[in-house]
Amino acid sequence: MLWTLLKIILFIAIVVGAVFGLSILTEMDNLGVLIVMGREFVITPLIAVVGTIVLLLVVWLLFRIVGLLVATLRFLNGDETAMSRYFDRRSERKGYEALGEGMMALAAGEGRLAIRKAERAEKYLSRPELTNLVVAQGAEMVGDRALATETFKQLVTDDRTKFVGVRGLMKQRLDAGDTETAMKLAEKALALRPKNAEVQTTLIGLQSKHEDWAGARGTLAAALKAGNLPRDVHKRRDAVLALAHAREAMAEGQVAAATRDVAEANRLAPGLVPAAVMAARLDVEAGRKRQAAKAVRKAWDQNPHPNLAAAFAAIEPDETPEQRLKRFRPLLAKHAGHPEVRMLEAELHIAAEDFPAARKALGDLAEAHPTARSVTLMAAIERGEGAEDRVVRGWLARAVTASRGDQWVCSNCGHVHEDWAPICANCETFDTLDWSEVRQSQAALAGPAQMLPLIVGALEDQSEPEPEEAEIVEVTEAEDTPAEVDPDSPAPGAEAAAQPEPEEPRATQN
Ligand SMILES: [Zn+2]
To answer: pTM for this one?
Structure first.
């Protein structure tokens, strides 16, 4: 407002000044008379002023012409760029200014502006390998997929920006869910830049998603060689890939190849539970019991896991419960006090029908850390010791609302898996399955079991559950009691059920 006012005042002042100056000039006496070729020219002050301005202009033009002449002379002398340099310097400056503004716009998140500036810069610079980079990013920013694709394709045509173009196209295919094409592009990108960590990771993920285990192992080796992976991480992932390869071979009936690959996986990562379990199983089938026991024990030393206990039990399927308990002693001694070991020992004692020993082994686990498995074990112990049905049912009712304990959980998306797999079934990420407990709120667990007290009360007069035993000790509640926990409640070895949430008890009306 004030600025506009000032401008108006300034404009009026200039006009008044000019008029005033003009009137002074016209009123002044003539400066003199110029005689050129016999003719007289009267020089008024006005002509003098105008003449001076014209003279200045002529001098400026002369300088420009001299500059151009110098450039022309240089050009004729062999310096070909001198001419174009003379003309280009100005537009180059403008071009870089526009490019800089475009990059600023990118950083500020203004995609459209960035594209406009880059297009302007391209007009002055003619350097598509630079300006297209800004256009592509701007297009991605504003979600203009078609423009981004077109720009990436242009980048591919230039050797200097080929990698950027291929990578951009790869990302676009990934976003569109076209993993097939994305994988081919990732391979192409990696051929251009074999050491690029990001593309390596992407390619390994895609190859494992497409179950190209051998290809993924190759890429993993390249990542290690390029120094993009710590050696221990490489070892672990290589083991997982070898195991996945072994499983595939096994599914196709190629036992020899499966044995070789699983041995490799077991050697690379002795603590990888599914590898140890599979190695032990193949060893048992081939009659190598000692080797099987060694594989299991090595993995158990790193972390006790029910699958390992089951594999260890399967080495001697026909032994008595007492013999089994004796054979398990070294395993139990290794991680004394660990919940897994306490539950395993309790299960072994229950199988041997030594209920007081089972109670002692379990200790306060069912109270301190109630899980479906520990609470069900408590029910079996009470039942074995001849407690009242009410007590047994009380424990079983608690099992419904208890946590499911440790399960194979994807550390990326939290999806719970029944069995270990190299790829998460939900988010399809590679090697993300951990043996851990899902954190659930008490409300979420209790939800389906709100009516349990009623059901448990109504069952008072029904037949009592009969604990059964199978494999090592399948602590299963008899199928003829309708409103109990799911029949396949946790058994040793069998990983503590895979249902993400407790199942609704089947209430009966009869
Ligand atoms: Zn996942």
So the answer is: 0.65
